[in-house]
Amino acid sequence: MNADRRTQAERSAATRQALITAGRRLFGELGYAEVSTVAITHAAGVSRGAMYHQFTDKRDLFEAVVEDVEHDLVGRISSAVSKSGFTDPIDNLVVGCLAWLDASTEPEVQRIALLDAPAVLGWDRWREIELRHTIGRLEASLSAAAKAGRIRTQPIRPLALVIVGALDEAALYIARFGRTPEEERNVRSVIEQLISGLATEA
Amino acid sequence: MNADRRTQAERSAATRQALITAGRRLFGELGYAEVSTVAITHAAGVSRGAMYHQFTDKRDLFEAVVEDVEHDLVGRISSAVSKSGFTDPIDNLVVGCLAWLDASTEPEVQRIALLDAPAVLGWDRWREIELRHTIGRLEASLSAAAKAGRIRTQPIRPLALVIVGALDEAALYIARFGRTPEEERNVRSVIEQLISGLATEA
DNA sequence: AAAAAAACAGGCAGTCTGTATGTATCCTTT
DNA sequence: AAAGGATACATACAGACTGCCTGTTTTTTT
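YS: structure for the whole thing
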């Protein structure tokens, strides 16, 4: 009966993936505190013991979920930027930010990455993760724009964080009150104005 | 033995205040999830039964704590603005924002108002509270500046939220990495640039 | 003063997390 | 290929915590 004979690495990867997928769905739907480990493991078709073998605790699983979400976000932003075909640094910056804004409008992303992650993981850990993904990308774009002399030179890191804060808040607002095209346009215009405000004046 | 004979309203107010004070200290120090109701009631010198009589649940007590923090914040911001003695709308805007930034640097404010509140209360409730306090003040300042023609006219609400997002993120950054005067200057310059970017060009 | 209402105290039930102990599956070494 | 070891997993358990329930004290009303 070795039909399901698998290597250890495959077994681990399978259960980890099942847990991350189930966790992502449930955390995104109900929030971290409202989802029990038994609910996750049940949804993943895995025992609680398996979960505690793969992850040190519930928080650790949540962290893996956050990484998963961030990974997807970077992919979506990158593809939006490359699809746009722009070469100008400022254009890329705007396209990237709007793609971020768009993705961050989804309930799952909001609940996990914007609301729960800071509280559950703490600001330091949370920012460390985002730096390796989305914010890292943003910093790169900003550096490129600065190097090209298209934005006023200034410290990149705080600038990037401030932009992120503005974008996240805008996304949360859109998700609640920006369902009308007009409201959404309003928010976008605010963001564009903010970014263009960084550009060096002609 | 009616030395401590008090009216019902006084009794309620006393226990509510004791719980809010103790809760604020503990929540601010350890975070919402790490503080048990028994820890709070013990610190407040009150039974758990009393707490559940005054508040519907732990979340409700936390909400009262958030209101308390917000109330203080508005007071501090207002006093900073009035002390500055400026009359120009833009000046007041900048002073107010920097006062906000300053206050939001404290660990207690960060943990309660910036990290836990959104996750525990949910974005809608959280923003509703802030609208009645700090953000409400900011919107008033922005409206005044817009009316005086000192900033480009644009929808106030999303603009205010975006500024708040930027400020909060800046405060969190300062608290971690901005302990050197130079870093702090960097962040402030980013914020000032952001706000001045809103001003109508001369 | 009696009755009603409000504030409070302590205990109980249900749930949840993390751990510990035992088992199955896979890998390595000889 | 068999034994020994390591890794992945399963289940039971202990401790903690939240919200409720019942009963008691204190204040207010009649």
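YS: worth flagging: Residues 5-8, 11, 36-38, 48, 52, 56-58 of chain B lie near DNA strand D (CB under 10 Å from a C1').
IM: good catch. Also The interface with chain A takes residues 31-33, 110, 114-116, 118-120, 122-124, 152, 154-155, 157-159, 161-170, 172-173, 176-178, 183, 186-187, 189-191, 193-194, 197-198 of chain B (CB under 8 Å).
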